[in-house]
Amino acid sequence: MRPPEDFELEALIDNEEADDLLSAPDAPLSMPASPDFGAHHHHHQPKWLTQSRHRSWIRSIPPRIIARVWPLLRPRLTWRYVLSSLVTLYILFCFITRQPLLASNLPGYTGTYGVGAVDVEVPLPGGTKRISEAAFKSSGDAAFEVETVLVSIYYPTSREYRSPKPRYYWIPKPVSLTAAGYAKLAHVDNFIMRPIFTFFLWAVGGGITIPAEVDAPLLSADEIIVPTTSSLKHRDDAPHNTTFPITVFSHGMASSRTDYTNFLGELASRGHIIAAVEHRDGSCPGSLVKLDPKDPGRRVLPLRQSDLSEPMETPDLKSTQLAFRDAEILGAVHLLRSINAGDPIPNSRAALTTLPSWAGRLNLDLLTIAGHSYGATGALQALTTVAGPNSSSSGDEDTLPASAGIILDPGKGSGPLNHNTTQPLLVIHSNSWSRPSSILFHGRPHFDTVRDLVASSPSPSWFLTAIGTSHPSVTDAPLLEPLLLSWTTGAGLDVRGALAEYVAAAADFLAFVPTGSVREGSVLAQAASHREYEKWVSKEREEEFPKAMAKLWEVHVSPETKQG
Q1: What whole-number percentage of the chain has pLDDT above 90?
Q2: What is the pLDDT of residues 393-446, one digit of tens each?
Q3: Is 80 exceeded by the pLDDT of residue 261?
Q4: Cβ atoms of 94 and 105 closer than 8 Å
Q5: What is residue 235's predicted lDDT score, i.e. its pLDDT?
Q6: What is d(CA 379, CA 368) in angstroms, rounded to the nearest whole number?
Q7: Which of 11, 42, 121, 149 could cross-link 331 (Cys pair, CB 3.0–4.6 Å)?
Q8: Is residue 100 part of a domain?
Q9: Shortest CA distance to 132 belongs to which of 291, 270, 276, 313?
Q10: Average pLDDT over residues 308-331
Q11: Pairing outcome for strands 114-123 and 148-157
Q12: Domain tally for the chain?
């Protein structure tokens, strides 16, 4: 490439110095200094050896920039200037401290132990299972075919351990996949809105990580702390066990396996192993099905009835999705069983080193099936279909009988609730879920349906309402956006306080299942206070109920008053 003809270099010396150099005998460009030479030869000195009389354009740039920028930077007490300055400083602060731009970081866990996390995806036991013959209109591919099971497992580890591996992102990569799913759920899935949703998700939570140590070793037996006898009611001993109870958790509609990390991690920090399933039934905003570690993954987005070649009736769609979830929950149970047996785990996600050391450390006799919203409906169903009391004798080696169920806001639009469970149940409604509605649930109020389901259970069970909470209170969302969620959902209780109450009740219930004893001071130690929402069973009960607890809980059904 030839330079332009007027291209020249800036002089480093003045004209007098240039003449001296040119006449020096050892100069690389020496020229004779005799007058005769100059008389007969016109010497044209290069411009790059001369000092420009005018200021170089390079040197003129900073003043020009300063002249233009200074009016913008000059302090002024206008609202635009103050606002832009605050925004700039906030962005700079978030960048320096690695804080998300428009959200809060997830808090650490408060239990006795540290928390580890692993992502595991394995083929469905027995191979791919087709739940329905329904197919996608666009491709003709099967819409309800279970190929793999993806779980995030949270578990206790040493509080001092720090993993060399980076933490998992709260919004799994790529963010654009989850954004496309939310755009589809909002019915604005197009090439204009998808980038907007992606930028918004990235700004809100793209940099948020889950505060658990990736691939940490499972807590060693000698680090397990034995509970004191004084912490339990009617308990004479505190057996020391080197195994951990297990729970399989099912998420709600428009949620994923990472939406409940605080609730599940808090239980893990109290000595439980929790496997959070990511459902590919069309309810997750976005998921990647990976058959191999090198596989880029098959995208799964939310399912609409119009996506199917032959649209299904809503009850049939819900039934099919719940059957899909059954297969995934069963796959998660099989995975935990394989880990406990020390079997090789064909994980298609990032390589792990900790799982082989888990052999014999999982208490398969203490399996809890839990879920929220749509997942709560699925968990209730799975307590009979997947992990019922006769499942271990059914001839299917993959099944295990569940010992209990934790049901959080069982769905109002996910089909009928299973009334055939026999295990102990803890059912917790958020305040918004118990509030009366003009819309009936299969012919009667939803609250009455849930209350009677729990009251008719043959095992000790509870039905509670967490006062001051809303449907998302058990998720991570209020922790990330506390003001926004409180304003939009009407939740009145402090978000961390609300989650702490959920965790305490769930932990007390999980401690009750193997022992039959309830911690003193627990809400589970209380008899029923409200058979109807916001209506005390009696004036005497209102007066004797602990005042501080009355601000947090309503007890609708308890083992002592189930038949009352």
Answers
A1: 70
A2: 444 555 789 999 999 999 999 999 999 999 999 999 999 999 999 899 999 999
A3: yes
A4: no
A5: 36
A6: 9
A7: 149
A8: no
A9: 313
A10: 96
A11: antiparallel
A12: 1
- Bigger pLDDT: 241 vs 27: 241
CA-closest candidate to residue 252, choices 429, 412, 373: 373
Task: Please tell me which residue in 132, 319, 373, 461 is annotated as part of the active site.
Answer: 373
pLDDT value at 226 more than 90: no
φ and ψ at residue 90, rounded to 5 degrees: -65, -45
Both structure tokens of 401: 């009988």
Query: Are 218 and 361 contacting, i.e. CB atoms less than 8 angstroms apart?
Result: yes
| 373 has catalytic annotation | yes
Domain of residue 184 covers: 114-216+243-557
If you compute the radius of gyration of the chain from its CA atoms, what whole number of angstroms results?
33
Active-site residue, selected from the candidate residues 272, 372, 471, 530 = 471
In this structure, what token pair is assigned to residue 308?
Answer: 């199917």
pLDDT at 230 over 50: no
Task: Single out the residue of 243, 262, 256, 404 nearest to residue 328, CA to CA.
Answer: 256
Q: Is residue 360 part of a domain?
A: yes
pLDDT of residue 130 exceeding 80, the answer is yes
Determine whether 419 is an active site residue: no
Does the structure show a pLDDT above 90 at 77?
no
User: What's the rounded Cα separation, in Å, for the pair 564 and 557?
Assistant: 9
d(CA 217, CA 355): 8
Cis amide prior to 62 (ω within 30 degrees): no
Would strands 425-430 and 462-466 be described as parallel, antiparallel, or unpaired? parallel
Active-site hit among 307, 326, 409, 476: 409
Is 409 catalytic? The answer is yes
Residue 541 lies in a domain: yes
Q: Rounded mean pLDDT of 509-522?
A: 96
- CA-to-CA distance for 304 and 324, rounded, in angstroms? 16
Q: What average pLDDT is seen over the chain?
A: 85
Whole-number Å distance between alpha carbons of 162 and 160: 7
**Cα–Cα distance measured from residue 335 to residue 277, given in angstroms and rounded to the nearest whole number:** 11
Assign residue 199 the CATH number of its domain: 3.40.50.1820
